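Input (Amidohydrolase 3 domain-containing protein):
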Amino acid sequence: MISTKWLVVEMVLVIKGLRGIKELRVDGRGTLNAEGRMALPAFYDMHFHPENAFTLRRTGENTSSTLQEAVAKWSKLRDLLSVEEIKDRMKKALLLELYHGVTHVRIHVDTCSKDLKSVKASVILKEEMKDLMDIQTVSFPEQSVFKCSNDFTYASQLTDIVGGKPDAEDDIETSIKHLSYVTMIAKKLGKNMDVHIDQDARRTRFAEYLLSFADMHLALSHMSSLHYEDDDYVRKITQMIRNKRASVISSPLTGVYLATEKGYPKGRGITRIRELMKEEINVCLGNDDTQNVFYPFGSGDILLSLFMAINMEQSFNADEWIPLVTYNSEKEFSTTSNPGKDFVILDASSMREQMSTLAPRFMVIRNGRIVAKTNREARLLIDGTSLDPVMLMRSLTG
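Output:
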């Protein structure tokens, strides 16, 4: 596991000290007093669907809390939206992610949207937001590559990465054909792949098949079914992932919400994150969905996903999990843009404090420029005395 010292000192060269930073050069205007707050490289969201963010009011609620109902309701709204409407929604959702410290994001865009409107909107938006955020786009066949009338090959030409969703097909045989088809396209285009795979309680094992023959870089998104597999199989698939140097991307918020069990006990809905980390698999996190029919809550804060992952995996040391939204994700994103220039200052002196308060970021800096900040004014007013609740907590934990 990478040390937090690398994250705070080497990646962010202008930061002085491991925990409490005192001053920081910003915008060439001298120094900024950070007053002992913790600084990190800016965050990555490695799995996000901004096109349907904040659409819950328009789609209606997911009464069954299932992926199937979510897809059905979203697809009805999706085809009513224009390219400009989709782009505008995407931009607003990504600006909220920026506010929370994300400067690199991988978005999956629905290739089943009418006339590829989602894909076209993402291409325009990527250029429009390049000064604020690095965006990678993935061609995502929400409702199958065979049932949609759109040309998936053309859609994949427009995106950075080729996606897939074998679970969208009606049977295992067609799902296998799906994987062969999208892999053929990726190879033809010379692109990497990021596939929604093994998403629920069914032990489909599509990841094993894909790993056995795909010769480009792979990211395996979700892999929730690994939670239900026996340990012998998990060891086998983990070895395959390691040999392939593939990444696993988990979305804990949506995964937990869409867990398919009807009754108790319920599965956790996420892959074996902690176990994969111990086996040195490159694991990353994504928000996936924000206030839509797939997941009804959220604000664009990737630390909510990190919070869920840490709790679901019963971890004590929050520092060990920072790489899932920084270093690990940087490796998967495969970019060296803005080294040492994108970072976030937490309104906390440690990751334990940040995970306890979930406070908004104190400041977000993109390419050396302040792009977001929060001025906190929290007080306890008791018997004529004004107390800072955060300082009160620090007095107890310090």
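Residues 70 and 372 are 33 Å apart (CA to CA).
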